[in-house]
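Worked problem 6 (solution included).
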Amino acid sequence: MATVKKNKKKIIVPICIVLVIAIIVGVAFGVSAATGGEEVSLYTISTDDIYENVSLTGQVSSGTEKEYKVATVATVKEVFVKPGDKVKKGDVLATFETESLDSEISSLRSSYNSSLSAYNEAVKEQKEAQNKANSLKSQIAETEKEIQRLENQSDFVTTAKRTTARTTTKRATTAKTTTKRVTTTKDEPNTTTTTKPNTSVTPGGEISSLTEALVELNQNLTQITDSVETLATTTEIIADVITQAFDEGVFDSDVIADRVAEAVSQAVYDGIIDSATLLVDSGTAADMIHAAVAAIDFESIATSVANTKNVSLTAAQIQLASQEALYTIYNAKADQTTVNIQKKAVDATKTALDALEQQQEDMKNGWIASFDGTVTEVDVTPGVQTTALSTGIKLENLDSMAVTVSLSEYDVHKVKVGMPATVTTAYGTYEAEVTSIAPTATGGSSSGILDSVGSMAGISGLSSLTDTGAGVECTVSIPQTDENIIAGFDADVEIATGEYLGVVVVPIESIKLEKTGSYVYVYNEEEGTVTKTKIETGAVSDSAYEVKSGLKVGDRIISAPATDYEEDTFKVKVVEQ
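Solution. The predicted structure is:
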């Protein structure tokens, strides 16, 4: 058989011709594509029905359950059930010895009565203090008028008006009161050192120093007593003694201090001052007051109070200082703070007492089944004391079941009690209904990010799939159940939140989601271009959004826009799908 040898040159030439033709066709196609613009397929806007749902995952539990717990220590008398027992409403589950609670209730009732008495006393003191503060306010105004009258008398005007700065708790600005300190050393115990003030002899200056000293004296009295009544009584006694001494022309500091100490001691003896309200013994209190009064240099003041009018003015200043110090004390006592604190104490003890008495009453009657159900837990034993940590007895109605899910902040406003739902387990689908929604959210803070993404993608409830997402607890009840739906297992829940019939819709894949909103690319047939257009969306299903504005029926848009368009308006070449 003869062999034919092919010419290689003859084979190569046809191949080259084919390649050249291919290149020419490719270039021509490229030019055509560039001239026609981006190839896109279009979708024509129309109306459709949207069935909006919220899809979640939760855990199955019994539809009705109750935990019987002992909130205090008690001894179990008898237990009549065990896990798995079926009981009827009204059946006794367990009984308890309750006598041990009597002493605890008695103690708590005593605490309540004490706090109630303290509250009533605080209310009484507050009202009395308010009345006295109001009365003192009027007295202060009258005393100030009297001081003004004395200062304006002709033979005192040139001196007093120029230098007087009447000292009150708000206006004391002149010379400081000198102090008389009691110091104790190893060699000289209880030695009294007196430092007299270096004051001017102008009447206004001396009176100012005196009234400043009286204000400070009233403040120091708080070291002797914490009783407002005792403090007020002592202040009045001191002011009266000093005023009387001035009227008699007595200005010796030690003499005035002796009189004050004697008057205070007598008041204690007569019961005018209750010694039980003193923080120190009455003798020590009198000594402390004596030292404080003796520290005031009344002898220097005597130089400036040479006539009756000056004595009257000084007495009025003393009275004003006393009144303003008392006003400060009573005004503070009239504040509601103490009353509010006492009220909280009363409420707290009353709540605790009521709870304990209710516990005792419940245990006297025993734990009673409040509905037909199955006992699923028993953590009490006859003859053994319970603790607050004991589970007690758990009763569940397993004939009706429920699924607990977590609603995100985007879904919680869509879901309402009474909405229909479906629950799907590994063994079937069950009709259900939303029966409760918690008033507050619980959990972490990641739900915002998750559900923002989910909302843009048309997916609800992403946060409920995590352990850290915050959510509002929602219960979906399943009225008709069977043995295939088991408490403790997970189930998928779909809640029908709305029907939107005959609305303008756009496919989810036709929307470009950005931070600033939702966009589509609308086709202009005359110009052969598309333009990025913002739209407002409403209800959403698993495949489409309701369009509230930005599009109308008949508009044509890019069915699946790319993510990398560089311009908002550009030429396109429509390719039919």
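Discussion: The first helix runs from residue 8 to 36.
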